[in-house]
Design a protein that fits this description.
Layout lengths: L1 H32 L7 E5 H6 L6 E12 L2 E16 L2 E20 L7 E23 L5 E25 L5 E15 L9 E2 L3 E2 L4 E12 L1
Antiparallel strand pairs: 1-2, 1-10, 2-3, 3-4, 4-5, 5-6, 6-7, 7-10, 8-9
Length: 222
Amino acid sequence: MKTRLILSFFFSLLGIISWAQDKQEKKEDQKKHWKYEPNFMVGFDVLNTGMGFFSDRKLYQGFISSKVKENVHAIAEAGFEKNVYQKNGYDAKANGPFVKLGGFYMLAKDAENEFNGFYVGGKVAGAFYNQEYMAIPVRGFGGSNFSESFPSSSQSSFWLEGTLGGRVQLFSSNFYIDVNLQPRYMVYTSKQDDIYPMIVPGFGRSSSKFNMGFAWNLAYKF
């Protein structure tokens, strides 16, 4: 009886060791199979740049992305925005650079070209800019209204940004069209004399913590 128990225990132990070894070998094989191959796609937002010729908002932005592993891509964006806000008695302007860092996941892609398809992702973003208030409405005694101005000051804002978009190759070239929506949520912003900023470069008009962006990029894959 004891011999049978000892043999059962021995063979069970061998089975566990063999299973663990196979699992470790599979992990090592997967690590060996995956290797990052340098690849980059660089794009520029053509739509918002063009719209700047017909509006007060001047927005120049671009991105660089790289496939990291399978369906996962890393992305970095940077740009510069200059805009004005003239509404409800406010007269303000702001300008400055912004940066965004994050990644996205290819939800569906072309079997013949893995860079064609639809994706979803997210980024953290920040802007460091100058703002100036030429007029801010102030209610005085007896219900009278007047405005007050504030000098130019340096401010900073940070937000979270989602990404939902798609890419398609132009014919058989290295050029791609990349179109995406960017829902945004303001996490933190500095204030001048406790005044919430009306405009944040890269975020847009910030009278609300939520905003929606849109980009139509022409990209080139190296």
